Each structure stands twice: as structure tokens, then as C-alpha cells.
Amino acid sequence: MKCLKRLRIFWFLAVFRRYLALATGQEQIIFINLKNYIVCMGNKTKAKKEVHQYIKEYILSEEATQIMNSSDTFNEEGFDIWSFKKLILLEYYLKPYLTILQSRGYTCYFIDLFSGCGANKVSGEKVTSIGSSILSLLRGIVPIKSKSINYHFKKWFFVDYNPTFCQSLRRRAMKTLEILNKKYGENLVIDENVKILEGDCNEKINEIILEIEKESNGHKIAVLAFIDPYTFTNINWKTWKTLLKLRYVDIIFTFPINTLKRGLSQCKEMEKYLPPSLIELVKVRDITKIEDEEFSKRYAAEIAGIVNRPINYSEKGISVKNSKNSELYRIWLFTYSDPAANLTSNLVKELDRIDPSSLKMMFEKAKGKQKSILDEYS
Ligand SMILES: C[S@@+](CC[C@H](N)C(=O)[O-])C[C@H]1O[C@@H](n2cnc3c(N)ncnc32)[C@H](O)[C@@H]1O
């Protein structure tokens, strides 16, 4: 009885604290504890790594700065403060992914179908950030001290159809490999371990799958694919089918939901880009009346449907909104690994909950310019 009462008081305090944090805008007290893969609240809990620390590393760390400075080309389209959500999810997932799969004897590959040039200008800011491809290299090596080895992807495949981006990514990847080889005593080589493919990913995907299949010969193969298009017409539906021919493909996908409604009414080749259930839906219903939620749920369900085996994903995903609170894209993580899914499920929920104004505060803090709570109210 006493115990139940205590539990109730504890629960009440926890809920009260959360509402207080949200109501007063002190979202900086919500942070992510990477070590335990849980999300904690409150100033007393020792955080291993907070959201602003992730961002700080992407924009200001010495490694990031050296890598970004190795080329003067930057992607200047569509990278905003909210884009950090996708980078944080990627970073967070890489360690459990490699640790779990490599300890189970899998050879792992990373595919970034829309790799960009490795660095992005943050919209409206004088700040640049490393991109998904560079992050996958930097965090795609996990030292296992007990075994004195490093777990890492055997190969990273990066695709972009912009030739200038590919040249620039090549320079940045070479700089990154130089840093990694020195730091981890590895001998990772450009064009061998890191392949940069210039062209349409809807074509290049065949080349990549062929190469991985050739190497699979007797090995257990696992792939992590990062899929981050500008618009829904950047990726053909057929490309998903080709990619998912491989048995174990985990996916981080940013679905550009805001491009759908605008784009679909003018799109003459819906069959090329949409999964079957969405094609049926838009045939019988007025596009403007279909909720974004329905579009995204169906798209995600159809990706999971292709694999025809149980795959974990949170139906809601991570919503990415702009400062006007309109949804730009939805991020999903699809994973075969139950332990990895469990480890990341809290992060997925928490990233989904972080609203644009909180993210803005975390970004300001990362830059070292965050106001104190007192400043906020003076
Ligand atoms: C949203 S950006 C990717 C940003 C990147 N993930 C990052 O974090 O830095 C999309 C990229 O995809 C490229 N792209 C768009 N359509 C493509 C296609 N069909 N094949 C290959 N690259 C494409 C663009 O040139 C652009 O660099």
C-alpha cells in the first residue's frame, strides 16, 4: 500500500516536472542519455550527451571543421536547424547497429543514396554542418576494447547525381579517412572502402547491389541504408524493391511529405514514384483531402511490406517541422534487429517530440549563444 502511494507520488512529480519544463520553455532540461539509450529529464541526472552537444560536434568540432574546410562546396538547399534530427538519429543508431551485427558475424555495408557533398550550410545562419555521409564515416567505426579490434562497415557507398558534390565529397571523405586511420590504426582506402558513385541513384542502386551480392559469397551480409531525398520524385518505387532484394537492409528514410501534395497534382508518372496502395488511394480520393498522416503511414507500411518479413518501425516515425509548425518530412527507422529497435525506440519518440523552438534553443546553445532562463524572462 505504502509502496503504491510512493509510486503515485513519484509518477505525479515526474509528470509535473515534464509539464513545467514544456510550459516554461525550459526544454534544455530534456536531454538524451546516450550511454543508457534512454531519455532523461531534470538537471540532476548526469547526461552522457545532450542534443546541443551532438549539434556542436557537427558544426564546431575540430574534426568537422577540418573535414568541411577540405572543400569549398556546400549544399545550400534544404538544410535547416530541424535537419539535425536526422543526423542525431543516424549517429545514435550506428553504434548499436555495428556492435550487434558484427558481434553476430555479419559483414556490414553502408549505402547513402543521396549523399550530398558532405557539408551543408544551415539555412539563414552563418553556420555549416557535416552531412550524413561524413557522419557515417566518423561514427561508422566502433573500437571494441575487449577484443582490441574496431567494428566498422566493410564498404560505404555514396551516391549523388551532382558532379561538383561528388568531387567535393571525395575530398572530404579522403580527409575523413586520414583522420580515422590515424585515430583507430585502420587502413581504410578511398575507392576501395569508400565508393563515391556519380549519377542517378535509381540506376546506381543496381551496381551497388550487384557488388554486395558478389561479396556475400558465404558471408552473412547486413546493409544500413540512409535515404534522404529532396522530393518524393527523387526516388523511384522500383528502387526500394531493388534495394530490399538483399535480405537484411535496415533503413533510415526521410520522407519529404511536404513535396507530396504540391507535387502529386502535377505529377504525370505517379506509378513511377508511388507504392501501389497510394496510387489506388489518389485514384479514388481528392488529393487535397488526403491527410499527410495517411500518405506517410501508407508509404512506410508499403516499404515494410516489400520485405515480406517482420521488420521493426515506429508507425508514427519522427516528425520534422519548420518554425511555422508545418511538417517538412517524416523520418523512419526500419530495423530487423530487435535489440537495436529497443535501444532506439525512446530516442525516436523523444526526437519526434522536440519542437522547432526547442531545437532552435539547442542550436543556439551549441553555438554557445544560448540565453539563460533568466534572460528569457527578463
Ligand atoms: C537532401 S540532400 C542530401 C543531404 C545529405 N543526406 C546530407 O545529410 O548532407 C539530397 C541530395 O540528393 C541529390 N539527389 C537528388 N536526386 C538524386 C538522384 N535521383 N540520384 C542521386 N542523387 C540525387 C542532390 O544532389 C542532393 O545532394
Please describe what this structure looks like:
- This protein is of the alpha/beta class.
- It has a single domain (71-340), classed as Rossmann fold (3-Layer(aba) Sandwich).
- Helix content is 48%, strand content 18%.
- The protein is built from 15 helices and 13 strands.
- The strands form four sheets. A seven-stranded mixed beta sheet has the order 9-8-3-10-11-13-12, with helices on both faces. A two-stranded antiparallel ribbon has the order 1-2.
- The N and C termini lie far apart (46 Å).
- The model is unreliable at 15-47 and 372-378 (pLDDT under 50).
Give the secondary structure arrangement, pairings included:
Blueprint: H1 2-24, E1 30-33, E2 38-41, H2 51-60, H3 62-68, H4 84-103, E3 106-112, E4 119-121, E5 128-130, H5 132-138, E6 141-144, E7 149-152, E8 155-160, H6 163-184, E9 194-198, H7 201-216, E10 220-227, H8 237-243, E11 249-255, H9 257-264, H10 270-273, H11 276-284, H12 292-307, E12 318-321, E13 327-334, H13 338-353, H14 356-367, H15 373-377
Helix pairs in contact: 2-3, 2-14, 3-6, 4-13, 5-6, 7-8
S-adenosylmethionine (SAM) binds at residues 75, 78, 114, 116, 120, 131-132, 159-162, 165, 200-202, 228-230, 234.
